[in-house]
Amino acid sequence: MKLTHGLPAVAICLLACGSSSDDGPSQKPSAGAAFVTDAEPAGSRIVLREKEVTGDTLVLELRAHEVADLYGVAARISVDPAALAFERMTLGPAFAQMTRTLNLAKPGAEPGQLVMALSGHGKQSTASANNVVLATLHFKRASADATSAVRFTEHRSGVVDGAGRKAAGATFVGGELRVK
Questions:
Q1: CA distances from 28 to 33, 56, 57, 111, 169 (A)
Q2: Which residue among 11, 81, 90, 139 is the one 20 to 30 A from 179 at the CA level?
Q3: What pLDDT, on the 0 to 100 scale, is given for residue 18?
């Protein structure tokens, strides 16, 4: 395992920002809505997948596939602010196992934006990730019939390796909350 330094954490914050987890009480799944992930290309990718959709909640998992030397992920995500409101982010196993982490999720400067960063902090081992949950994102739905695309802003999203460099070739895959 490779040890890394604080530089990657700084790179994570700059990339996305630029200018113990409790998932709460369980609710009944919404029979009328589903999150449909966009088509996934082969290779290194960060993907949003449905964990749960209820009448007033959308919970998505941020997953890494075929990512080597993972030290951090930064992303800017856009949603329809009339349909979805960001509530919170919880760490997944990939970052929860690190002894020190940087995790940030906050509304962006414009309505419907979410700025997020996940990173090891200080000397940490990097990881290779394949189908690993990095984080869980919780949104409040405006109504049971609310729909919204959930997309990454590609030029503001990236994977950072243990040397603090933006890893080349990682694709970010969003999707859409649809009513059946």
A1: 12, 10, 10, 29, 38
A2: 90
A3: 44
Task: Compute the half-sphere exposure of residue 158: CA atoms within 13 Å on the CB side of its CA.
Answer: 20
Amino acid, single-letter form, for residue 45: R
- Beta bridge partner(s), residue 4: none
Q: Are 121 and 8 in contact (CB under 8 A)?
A: no
| Contact (Cβ atoms closer than 8 angstroms) between residue 133 and residue 94 | yes
Pairwise CA distance, residues 172 & 87, whole Å = 21
Type of residue at 130: N
* Tokens 């914050």 -> residue: 13
Residue 94's nearest CA partner among 65, 53, 57, 60 is: 65
Calpha distance 83→123 (Å, rounded):
40
pLDDT of residue 142: 95
* Separation between Cα atoms, residue 87 and residue 59, nearest integer Å: 10
43 vs 92: CA distance, rounded Å:
21
Q: What pLDDT was estimated at residue 103? A: 76
Q: What's the predicted TM-score (pTM) here?
A: 0.81
Read off the pLDDT of residues 52-101 as tens digits, 9 standing for 90 and up: 999 999 999 999 999 888 888 999 999 999 999 999 998 888 777 665 67
Length of the chain: 180
